[in-house]
Amino acid sequence: MKTIGVYTSGGDAPGMNACVRAVVRTAIYNGLNVKGIMRGYEGMISGEIIDLDRQSVANLIQRGGTFLKTARSTEFMTPEGRKKAYDNVIANGIDALVCIGGNGSYTGAKIFTEEYGIPCIGLPGTIDNDLYGTDYTIGYDTAINTALDAIDKIRDTAHSHERVFIVEVMGRDSGFIALDVAIAGGAEGALIPEDIEDWDKVIKHFSREGRRQKSFSIIVVAEGDEQGGALILEKKLAAIYPDLKIRSTILGHVQRGGSPSARDRILASRLGSEAVKALIDGQKSITVGIVNDQVSYTEFDLAIHGKKSVSKDLIQLAEILAT
């Protein structure tokens, strides 16, 4: 192995640049060349591949987003698209790949390795923290701190106007972000896909006799919750309690941007370096994560299909602290 190709795919996440930086510098330290593949699988198909050296990744660790860009690629889902990608990978002398992304990115890497035998290591780059095989994903810590900062500001307005605010956070179909920011932000409820009783808990909160007198409330909802998003929940709650003054806020993509936190920079750096080491050791078709502060390898199949759920203890904690 002489040359490693690295790319970011799917949704961007704070810390991706730090991860690419670690891949590049660890590879060079071990005498390897590195190529950057622009715009993920789309760039692999179109041949947007550049040389990377130490200088290429200087002054990047503090920047959010991904300087390699990212894009969705429907063409890569076809055998013809993957053949184009393979031809470009070979033409650029790339012997192995490091994929930084989420579940869909892992799936593409797995199929590509199966069809063409090119070793590929997956790294968990997503703010949702929903990937199996790692306790935390790159970008998650920054996202929850961004959401928490917004909720703290919303709390000031909620208190001033004596309103109930329903705040919708990202997370796709998982409730990691919502549950964490609900606990850290002192919310009176967290609606997440993993808790089927969450809506009943919110209703009981407002109807409970002897409830602590409070002129405002914050309810956090995960975008993928089965009860619906913030606007739907506002209508449902208003129908039950017409006297409540309710407002909704959807934080949206602001959670995916911004300078990565120290924790995300360290996690990304650690994972990027470990991916190169794994390739040098002859590994392929695996993801690298951190479990109990130790490096952990997970096969693509398990990383893609394995179920990672929020802690039941945290769900109970959120309920206790909301009383």
List keywords for this structure.
7-stranded mixed β-sheet, elongated, alpha/beta, 323 residues, 4-stranded parallel β-sheet, Rossmann fold, 11 helices, 42% helix
Write the layout of secondary structure elements.
Blueprint: E1 3-8, H1 16-29, E2 33-37, H2 40-46, E3 49-52, H3 79-91, E4 96-101, H4 103-116, E5 120-124, H5 140-161, E6 164-169, H6 176-184, E7 189-191, H7 198-207, E8 217-222, H8 230-240, E9 246-250, H9 262-280, E10 286-291, E11 294-299, H10 300-305, H11 312-321
Parallel strand pairs: 1-2, 1-4, 4-5, 5-10, 6-8, 6-9, 7-8
Antiparallel strand pairs: 2-3, 10-11
Helix pairs in contact: 1-9, 2-3, 5-6, 6-11
Q: What's the arrangement of strands in the largest beta sheet?
A: 3-2-1-4-5-10-11
Separate helix tally: 11
Order of helix and strand elements from N to C terminus: EHEHEHEHEHEHEHEHEHEEHH
Q: Please state the CA-atom Rg, rounded to the nearest Å.
A: 22 Å
CATH uppermost class of the largest domain: Alpha Beta
What is CATH's topology name of the largest domain? Rossmann fold
Overall mean confidence score, pLDDT: 94
Count of domains? 2
